[in-house]
């Protein structure tokens, strides 16, 4: 296990470099940000001077080499919008995004586990059809539409929750529900299918034949063995969470990394874009590594 973790950690380095190269290429072909940094009446001489000071007049390989020199020092350059280093700005917004993502994942787990187990144990019953049908419906709803509908109902009409912004717990409820319901739908279907497979195993029938109460058979024997695919999808949903925050944070004006990234793309603030993507990629890789560790905890028979 220790050797495997070391090997996986070493694999993170080339993956991050590949991601950084792809992001740099996309930024390079995205256009010249100088036009947005100067007033409309700026002369061509001023434009060229600024391009030269930023190193944008250098060829691709020179710019990439300079970028990589900064990357190994975790220096993504200065944001022209905020006039300071990009990485501290990104890290300052990260807690808000993590807060929203964790709250959304908690909501997803609280919804998915009971409904998934209930649906599996009541196969082909009205409860099963309600759970599976609801999961399909929630999965089909776009985040931005659901967020707007929740704002119209609970904020504008009923006045129960704030419309936007970040503050106390009431500000977190609607964005977390918006982000968590789609994940809950997918997890519910996965838990149901995993539980149905486990409930047909011989050791489950043996446990029932010994007179063990159905509650303990389901929650102690069946559910634990059904958790491995759930852990997998939870780790994979990290990227979905991050992608969902881009939309959800914009709808609810949540001051997180997603909103910062959207604003940086619109203003071509490439230092912020590069730092944001790098941080997001690192979080996704880290979550997959944590999932591998959890596999071993849940099932000691797994060997790496």
From TrEMBL:
Residues of the ABC transmembrane type-1 domain: 94-291
Gene3D superfamilies xrefs: MetI-like
InterPro entries reported in the protein's UniProt record: BPD_transp_1_N, MetI-like, MetI-like_sf
Membrane spanning stretches: 12-31, 100-121, 142-163, 169-185, 226-252, 272-295
GO biological process entries: transmembrane transport
Protein family membership: Belongs to the binding-protein-dependent transport system permease family.
Name of the protein in its database record: Peptide/nickel transport system permease protein
């Amino acid at each position: 296990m220790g050797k495997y973790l070391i090997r996986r950690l070493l694999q993170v380095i080339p993956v991050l470099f590949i991601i950084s190269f792809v992001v740099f290429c996309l930024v390079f072909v995205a256009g010249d940000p100088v036009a947005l940094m100067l007033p409309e009446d700026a002369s061509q001489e001023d434009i060229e001077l600024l391009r030269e000071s930023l190193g944008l007049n250098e060829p691709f390989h020179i710019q990439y080499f300079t970028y990589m020199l900064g990357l190994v020092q975790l220096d993504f350059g200065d944001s022209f919008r905020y006039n300071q280093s990009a990485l501290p700005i990104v890290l300052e917004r990260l807690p808000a995004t993590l807060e929203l993502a964790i709250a959304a994942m908690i909501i997803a787990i609280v919804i998915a586990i009971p409904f998934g187990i209930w649906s599996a144990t009541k196969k082909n019953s009205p409860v099963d059809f309600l759970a599976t049908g609801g999961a399909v419906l929630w999965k089909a709803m776009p985040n931005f539409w659901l967020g707007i509908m929740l704002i119209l109902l609970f904020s504008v009409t009923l006045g129960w929750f704030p419309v936007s912004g970040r503050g106390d717990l009431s500000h977190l409820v609607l964005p977390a529900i918006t982000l968590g319901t789609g994940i809950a739908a997918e997890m519910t279907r996965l838990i149901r299918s995993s539980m149905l497979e486990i409930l047909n195993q011989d050791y489950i029938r043996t446990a029932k034949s010994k007179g063990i109460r159905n509650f303990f058979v389901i929650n102690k024997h069946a559910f634990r063995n059904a958790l491995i695919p759930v852990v997998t999808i939870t780790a994979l949903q990290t990227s979905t969470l991050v992608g969902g925050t881009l939309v959800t944070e914009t709808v609810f004006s949540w001051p997180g990394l997603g909103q910062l990234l959207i604003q940086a793309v619109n203003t071509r603030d490439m230092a912020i874009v590069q730092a944001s993507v790098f941080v997001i990629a690192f979080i996704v890789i880290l979550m997959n590594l944590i999932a591998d560790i959890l596999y071993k905890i849940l099932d000691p028979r797994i060997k790496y």
